[in-house]
Design brief:
Blueprint: E1 10-25, E2 36-54, E3 58-62, H1 76-88, E4 93-99, H2 110-125, H3 132-142, H4 146-151, E5 154-158, E6 163-166, E7 173-179, H5 186-197, H6 209-217, H7 220-226, E8 228-229, H8 232-238, H9 241-251, E9 256-259, E10 266-270, H10 273-286, E11 291-297, E12 303-306
Parallel strand pairs: 1-8, 3-4
Antiparallel strand pairs: 1-2, 1-12, 2-4, 2-5, 5-6, 7-10, 7-11, 9-10
Bound molecules: cytidine-5'-monophosphate (C5P).
Length: 311
């Protein structure tokens, strides 16, 4: 080391992306949110968040998926850090570095993942030792998907998605993620879902027995048959090319496919590691999608991978 300065105190946290294996959407509530019955599944596509003690709040974004990440106070990770400081009475500021591999506005909860990771990182940096419950409470105020990214794995979500319950799930699943150019705005997709439904009555969302059975069995064929997303017609309505992507994946041998969350990422389930490789190659060669990634699930939620180092 050429400088006499010691490395700054910093903590790095790794956080996965999510897909929704099931996303059932009710009629909008008074507050505008939609009641959900969803099954979250964390997959091994990761962002890394590093927080470093600093004289003032700041944010740097890098990595393959950094384009389009909101900067400054519009960034959910920075909001998470400030909110935790306020809740815990911490006076110090941090500089947040996001290394983005989760697509932006892709329906994989990239922004929520960064917020969850920042909570875990700042908790460690500041030595707060907050309980999981305390962190989940803060996470829920930041966004509906944020609490799930703290825990990861496979879990049921209800309320607006922030109320988590464990689910019995076996096995490891092989996913091929088809990324499309341009993101979709989550509020716009929910609004389109309401518009497509029109005045028709909407039943309260209830988890399907087929999904619960499929998860208990760990059988990818059963899981593929049970994949469903009420937001899928709305995402396809706003981005019609997604219909072609779904068709292409099935033609190339996927067991099943579903738009992830509000899209536009499409998650395809493959039978094995080899089948996922073949599917990824075919989808890439087809030119139907912007990028193709493979990932296995379930993955662990936000967890510390480096630091804290002495300041
Ligand atoms: O909770 P979050 O900030 O991630 O939600 C983003 C937007 O998605 C909300 O402002 C709302 O328009 C929509 N949303 C919804 N119902 C949910 C979750 C999100 O309408 N259960």
């Amino acid at each position: 080391m050429t400088s006499a300065a010691l490395p700054p105190a910093s903590v790095t946290v790794r956080v996965p992306a999510k897909v929704n294996l099931e996303l059932l959407v009710g009629a909008p509530r008074e507050d505008g949110y939609h009641p959900l019955a969803t099954v979250y599944h964390a997959v091994g596509l990761f962002d890394e968040v590093t927080v470093t003690a600093a004289a003032q709040w700041g944010l740097t974004v890098n990595g393959p998926q950094s384009l389009g990440v909101p900067s400054g106070d519009g960034n959910l990770a920075l909001r998470a850090a400030r909110q935790l400081a306020e809740a815990a009475g911490v006076q110090d500021a941090v500089h947040v570095v996001l290394r983005k591999d989760i697509p932006v506005a892709g329906g994989m909860a990239g922004g929520s993942a960064d917020a969850a990771a920042t909570l875990v990182a700042c908790d460690a940096l500041w030595g707060l030792a907050m309980t999981r419950q305390e962190l989940e409470g803060l996470a829920a105020t930041l966004g509906s998907d944020v609490p799930f990214l703290l825990s990861g794995g496979t879990a049921m979500g209800s309320g607006r998605g922030e109320v988590l319950a464990p689910v019995l799930a076996r096995g490891k699943f092989h996913w091929v993620l088809a990324l499309s150019e341009g993101g979709l705005s989550t509020p716009a997709v929910y609004a389109e879902c309401d518009r497509l439904r029109g005045a028709a009555p909407v039943a309260d969302p209830v988890p399907s027995p087929e999904m619960m059975t499929a998860l208990r069995s760990g059988d990818p064929h059963a899981l593929a048959a049970a994949l469903q997303n009420d937001l899928q017609p709305a995402a396809i309505s706003l981005m019609p090319a997604l219909g072609d992507v779904l068709e292409a994946g099935m033609e190339f041998g996927a067991l099943g496919g579903v738009v992830s969350g509000s899209g536009p990422t499409v998650a395809f389930l493959a039978e094995s590691h080899e089948a996922a490789l073949d599917l990824a190659v075919s989808l890439t060669a087809s030119g139907a999608v912007q990028d193709v990634r493979r990932a296995t699930g379930p993955a662990h939620g936000a967890h510390v991978v480096g630091g804290p180092r002495a300041g």
